[in-house]
Write a structure and sequence with these properties.
two-stranded antiparallel ribbon, D-Maltodextrin-Binding Protein, domain 2, 9 strands, 7-stranded mixed β-sheet, alpha+beta, 454 residues
Length: 454
């Protein structure tokens, strides 16, 4: 690679990413609900109880959690809840260290794959069937609930289901003479040309970070070939090296045609700053994002007043004969085995996700609620963001492929230091082709447990 500093090097030098290692990922998910005969935990204590909870997210999510926790404490005056929260960047490194050391919070917001990466044998999180007297597990449909069964244990409950979709700043698109959201690859290419010629070199229709580029690569390949990225049970890769190189070249074409900002340009302007916090996004110079449906409000609210009204949920783009894209459990809530008061911890989860008083405050800040009673409460309170709801409905109607638990392994997706980042940094800095870098990707995938037959 060139001598120019990459995001990967930038974050190593600045220490923005923690050095904590990731525990080895392992399969072994039971596809049916965990046994309901699990031994129940002790009843709630009569005296004072202290609980801790942790989550990641943006400012609006932080506010929702804190307000809901305050409401919980008003109803349960003997329970004090102490929160720990931050933005996503570096969060998994922090939590992996806590899980390894047995010092994680009592209730943890978790990514779905964390159940495999940090509790593949049930060593980190309790079986929520043991606290089913305090959390109503019947409020979830079987499929999303079963997605959180690992090692035969109900290790979490799903907060929401999610997938990726395009969001556009149509204020900027209109300035470029474009009045409709992109619906095809040709539309994306045409937007790149229009932005460059009519608005200038520093305007781009779309921004994709390293992990975003990898997700869109898979989305594209699923559209072309009609198969999951990998077997969801065994994490056996379903694509050949040549097919993957084709997907990587697709991303390179977006750079070459001025659809997405080159990574060196973004890093030079922003360092490790998240896209929604970048001046380019706030002022409309980056006019699109490919993000989780639950992120709609975060990106809309970051825009300045000149651009906010133009924020629009786009359409999924079908790049081939198939509808690409996967859905997954967006996040879950789990109780750690070090929790001294699991009954009270379950009561807190039930309050946040199932009960009207809590779910009406949480609304759609963590995505559209997967709990039936939680969704009803949020909708009744007018707390479901219409943009998030629109995005989620489009995702669930379009995307049908499955995600394997290793795809989001931290060694692959970590900002700045992950293999995905290395692949796309190499493409952008060195002008490398997909064929030049596909072995970097395959070697990295194999190192975290994928079976590679490419």
């Amino acid at each position: 690679m060139s001598n120019a500093i990459s995001r990967r090097d930038f974050l190593k030098v600045t220490g923005a990413v923690g050095a904590a290692g990731l525990l080895a990922a392992c399969g072994g998910n039971g596809s049916s609900t965990a046994a309901s005969t699990a031994t129940s935990v002790a009843a709630p204590a009569e005296g004072d109880v202290s609980l801790t909870i942790s989550w990641w997210g943006g400012d609006t999510r932080h506010t929702a959690y804190q307000e809901a926790i305050a409401a919980f404490s008003e109803e349960h005056t003997n329970i004090t809840v102490s929160p720990t929260f931050a933005a996503w960047s570096g969060w998994e490194d922090t939590m992996s260290t806590k899980f390894a050391g047995g010092v994680a919070e009592d209730v943890c917001q978790v990514n779905w794959n964390w159940l495999y990466n940090y509790s593949s044998n049930g060593q980190t999180f309790i079986d929520l069937n043991t606290v089913s007297d305090y959390i109503d597990l019947t409020q979830w449909d079987e499929a999303p609930l079963n997605a959180c069964v690992v090692a035969g244990m109900q290790q979490a409950v799903p907060v929401s289901m999610t997938g990726r979709i395009f969001f556009w700043n149509m204020t900027t698109f209109n300035k470029a003479g474009i009045t409709e959201v992109p619906k095809t690859l040709d539309d994306l290419y045409a937007a790149g040309e229009a932005f460059q010629t009519k608005l200038g070199e520093d305007y781009y229709p779309l921004h994709l970070g390293g992990y975003d580029r990898m997700i869109l690569t898979v989305f594209y390949l699923e559209s072309i070939y009609g198969k999951d990225w990998a077997d969801p049970s065994t994490s056996t890769l379903n694509y050949t090296a040549d097919e993957i190189a084709e997907g990587l070249d697709f991303i390179k074409s977006l750079v070459d045609k001025h659809v997405i900002m080159p990574l060196p340009t973004y890093y030079g302007n922003n360092g490790s700053t998240a896209a929604n916090q970048s001046n380019e996004w706030i002022t409309g110079k980056l006019a699109g994002i490919f993000e989780w449906d639950s992120a709609a409000s975060k990106y809309r609210d970051a825009l300045d007043t000149d651009n906010r009204d133009g924020f629009t949920v786009g359409e999924e783009i079908q790049f081939g004969d198939y509808k690409g894209g996967f859905t997954k459990v967006s996040m879950g809530l789990a109780i750690t085995k070090t929790c001294q008061h699991p009954a009270e911890a379950a009561m807190l989860i039930n309050f946040l996700l199932n009960e009207e008083a809590g779910a009406s405050i949480m609304g759609s800040e963590c995505g559209i609620p997967a709990s039936k009673s939680g969704l009803a409460a949020a909708e009744s309170a007018g707390a479901v963001d219409t943009l998030v709801e629109e995005a989620n409905s489009k995702v669930l109607a379009f995307c049908s492929f499955q995600l394997d638990p290793l795809f989001e392994h931290n060694n692959l997706k970590a900002d700045g230091t992950g293999i995905y980042q290395e692949v796309f940094d190499t493409i952008d800095y060195d002008g490398a082709s997909g064929a030049d870098v596909v072995d970097i990707l395959l070697d990295g995938m194999e190192s975290v447990g994928y079976t590679i037959n490419a």
